[in-house]
Amino acid sequence: MSRIVLSGYYGFTNLGDEAVLQATVDELRRRRPDLEIAVLSASPGETSSTYGVRGVPRADPRAVLEVLRRCDLFLSGGGSLFQDATSWRSPWYYLGVLGAARRLARRTAVYAQGIDRPRWWPTRAAMVRLLNDVDLITVRDAASQAVLADLGVRRPPIVVAADPSLLLAPQWTPAVESERRTWGDGPHFGLAIRPWGSGEAARAVAEAARRVARRFGARWILLPMQRSCDAELAEWLASEIGASSLVLRRPLRPGEMLALVGGLDLVVGMRLHALLFAASQGVPVVGVAYDPKVAAFLDEVGEPSSLPVEELTAGELVGAVEEALRDRALRRERLLGATRALRDRALRAPARVLDLLG
């Protein structure tokens, strides 16, 4: 029996990262049912019970080193683990674990990661040194491949795959159906915003949402993709938007959120996986970019350029929503076709990493 260890932003109730984990575990097991999978998690007990894996406390050095010593294949990813835009400490955790895995595990690979150019040179130097020493790199888009080339990552094979969560299937459970009934009549537009900066962007979003609600007679569904970070902002936005808004307070699993998002008429989002969930179901999207990964994804699915969060105005956002709602049937077909191609690409990552096991 081969042992695999997964390292990522797991166990933090972030639906995007949990979707990546669910899809990764499902696909690896579909190909190799005999795998023993361990996951470094902030909530190891919950991760174990949810995914049927061995949850390992990610902040316990002894537990991490013990599982790495028994590891046949270590996978770092998915997500954007080495970026230092949201936290300068975060990449050092993931680079440290990857460095330990290089010494202790039999094989190591980067798994379907999005790669941004770190802002700080020590992060860049450590990243290049370690990534040149792994057995395989798979990235989620061509932009990530270009960043690696520019940084000087040359030695391991680099494969362009796609976000693993594209392999996830919608789950229309009783919880989803119950939530959907509370919405009332449509149209229904989703809003997935995360806290950022001084709050100017949030105020612009609230003003734009009020205008859009009046213009289209729509109700906004506030989607906290990471409840611990987004819930308070979602409640504030709902209070600013008024009666034409509703906060999703029911905790949902990734497949359930995918199903719920698929029933929307539009999604405006800063959260990458809210946009990805929508696009994969043919729902028009408007992206607000706080990170290059948002713009990179929208570019891959052929959507107009995203709006930069630092310069966001209510007028620009209203205009982007109006544009996204034009020719909806044509846009739906384009999104479905683009994400279908991305799903095919997403299958490259599990296929290539499992080849490392022989």
Question: What can you see in these coordinates?
Answer:
The protein has helices at about 15-30, 45-50, 60-70, 90-105, 120-130, 140-150, 175-180, 200-215, 225-240, 255-260, 270-280, 290-300, 315-325, 330-345, 350-355, and strands spanning about 5, 35-40, 55, 75-80, 105-115, 135-140, 160, 190, 220, 245, 265-270, 285-290, 305-310. By secondary structure, it is α/β, with parallel strands linked by helices. The protein folds into 2 domains: about 5-160, Rossmann fold (3-Layer(aba) Sandwich); about 175-340, 3-Layer(aba) Sandwich (Rossmann fold), CATH 3.40.50. The protein has a 7-stranded parallel β-sheet with strand order 3-2-1-4-5-6-7, with helices on both faces. A 6-stranded parallel β-sheet has the order 10-9-8-11-12-13, sandwiched between helices. Helix 12 links the parallel strand 12 and strand 13. Helix 7 (about 175-180) packs parallel to helix 10 (about 255-260) and helix 8 crosses helix 13 (about 315-325). The longest helix has 19 residues, at about 330-345. The protein is globular and about 60 Å long. The two termini are about 10 Å apart. The model has no long low-confidence stretch (mean pLDDT about 95).
